[in-house]
Amino acid sequence: MARMIITGGTVLTMNDAGDVVFDGHVVVSGDRIESVGPGAYAGPTGPDDRVIDARGKVVMPGFVDLHYHTAIGKGFSDHLPLWEYLDTCWYPLIRNLDAEAAYWAAAGSYLESIKSGVTTVNDMYRRLPDLGRAAVDIGIRAVLSNDVALPEHDLDSLQDNKDAYDAVHGAGNGRVEVYVGIEWLPLASPELLRDARILADELQTGIHIHLNESLTEVEDSKKRFGMRPTEVAYDAGLLGRNVIAAHCVWLSDREIALMRETNTQISHNPSSNAKLGNGIARLPEMLNAGINVGLGHDAAECNNSRDPFQVMKFASLMHRASRVDASLQQAPDVVRMATRNGAAALGHETGELSAGKKADIILIDTHNPMFLPLAPNDPAHIYSHLVFSANGSAVHTSIIDGEVVMEDRRLLTLDEDEILKNANEAFLRTRARIEG
After folding, report:
1. Lower CB density within 10 Å: C or N end of the chain?
2. Is there a single domain that holds both residue 72 and residue 165?
3. Within a domain: residue 428?
4. Total H helices, total E strands in the chain
5. For the Amidohydrolase-related domain, which residue ranges apply (predicted)?
6. Pure H helices in 10-90
7. How far apart are the C-alpha atoms of 180 and 230, rounded to whole Å?
């Protein structure tokens, strides 16, 4: 089997020891990392082996966007809080999707993510078979879930989610998975949460849900159910190791304890929470409780960017500002949240450059002003630039499942111009349907 040899770069392994290997190499065989080590690779090579020169580049695990929505439009309803934004912008758009619009919206979303260094998305949306086609075609690793709600809200049902699982789970040589998705408590009930857990267990898959995103959600839950959202989810048996709970901005002490007790995974989405005016999650308390927390951008409609570097910066600065404490969320810890923590939340063998792990790898070009100055052999300086200075335009190469998907910022799987053209036409067609 031909191998890929990435050599001469600064390798951020994100392994247990946090090793950073200067002038190191990574050898990929098939979809797995064969070895990681210092210096130029000196082992045997075959005539079909490919060598990638990584001099002047950081070699690291790809980012895992742990809470994600494919988005067909952005830049509308920017002034509205969450509930009004959903009713004005989000729900009308996703209720009027056709199959081609869903495909091109996903392709456009995944294009920006890949070009920003994201190799895995945890995407809750509609028309999952069409999203699955887009994920397979563009080459990204995608965990997909439906937007399940009670029937009166005209979104998806658990049957839709099961049908999607049957249709696309395991596609793309296993790169595409299907979870059970629940929109949020205002559009759900305890009975729907119990049924979602039953379905997830039957399918042996995970669950993706919004919880405690806004104060209005919390108050609605207390009024309707006499409990806070996470308490409702706990009583329904929904929480657990294979659950990604998105946002969790307004967790009480008891709810944090319930998350810890059930080993539920949390996606922290600071830039979206800020834009929608939802507040600042209690991230230090979550981490101190031992909860695994990854990072997500949420959706371009309520974030306007899918750039994980921006999310990392928000994930540090917001908490330092609100707590008046510059010691919080240090750069290496934030990078770990964006890579290894997200992978662990999804149960993936990614997020780390170590022998035997999946080969989801990005190369970041340090020959640009974002990395100026750069002290030689100083891991702290590299981490600092990644979190506080860089943006997605620094990503040079993206490798997913052992395949080069983007090289020198050029997508190799689909035609970028075609994606941009068709994604924009899909938006215009969907908006016309809403206005029509």
Report:
1. C
2. yes
3. no
4. 16, 18
5. 58-405
6. 82-85
7. 17
What is the end-to-end Cα distance of the chain in Å, rounded? 55
The pLDDT tens digits for 99-146 are 999 999 999 999 999 999 999 999 999 999 999 999 999 999 999 999
Distance of CA 320 to the CA centre of its chain: 23
Q: Angle at CA 62, nearest 5°, toward 57 and 67?
A: 145
Q: Residue 174 maps to which CATH number?
A: 3.20.20.140
pLDDT tens track for 388-420: 999 999 999 999 999 999 999 999 999 999 999
Question: Which of residues 346, 362, 387 is at a domain's end?
Answer: 346
Q: What is the DSSP code (8-state) at residue 263?
A: T
3-state helix, strand, coil in the chain (%, to 5): 40, 25, 35
> What pairing do the DSSP bridges indicate for beta strands 63-69 and 118-125?
parallel
Total structural domains within the chain: 2
Angle subtended by helix axes 128-138 and 158-168, to nearest 10: 30
Does one domain contain both 392 and 302? no
Distance CA 238, CA 50 (A): 46
Domain boundary among 310, 331, 346: 346
